[in-house]
Amino acid sequence: MCAPLITVLLGITLPCSPCFSLGFALGTVTASVMMSVIQGGLNTLVVCFADSPALLEENHPELTQEMIDAWAESFPQLIQKSAFAPPMAEPVVQDMGLIN
Question: Using CA atoms in the order 76, 81, 83, 89, what is the torsion angle rounded to 10 degrees?
């Protein structure tokens, strides 16, 4: 199927194996370019979240909460030390009558 196209364009006849290889290589490069665009958008979102979480929360509260939940699940020790830690309940102290 691709051999006639190459014959018309280049004037040579090739078996389909090089056509498959060429198509696979072009498809891989195209997919790589498209995924780099998505990766750039994701990196931008993470940097914005790290730089100014309050501004991101003001504009996209649902997305911010999802990111906080995901970070809390993956890195609980970091969230506990941050401003996003859930408020801790006051410890209950019972009077046992030991101190006069």
Answer: 80
CA 48 to chain centre: 13
Identify whether 38 is part of a domain. Answer: no
Residue range of the domain that includes 66: 45-83
pLDDT in tens, 80-99: 666 665 555 555 556 566 55
Residue 33 CA to residue 39 CA, distance in Å, equals 10
| Residue at 51 is within a domain | yes
Q: How many whole angstroms separate alpha carbon 49 and alpha carbon 40?
A: 14
How many whole angstroms separate alpha carbon 93 and alpha carbon 51? 39
Give rounded-to-5 percent helix, strand, coil for the chain.
70, 0, 30
Q: Indicate whether this model's pTM tops 0.85.
A: no
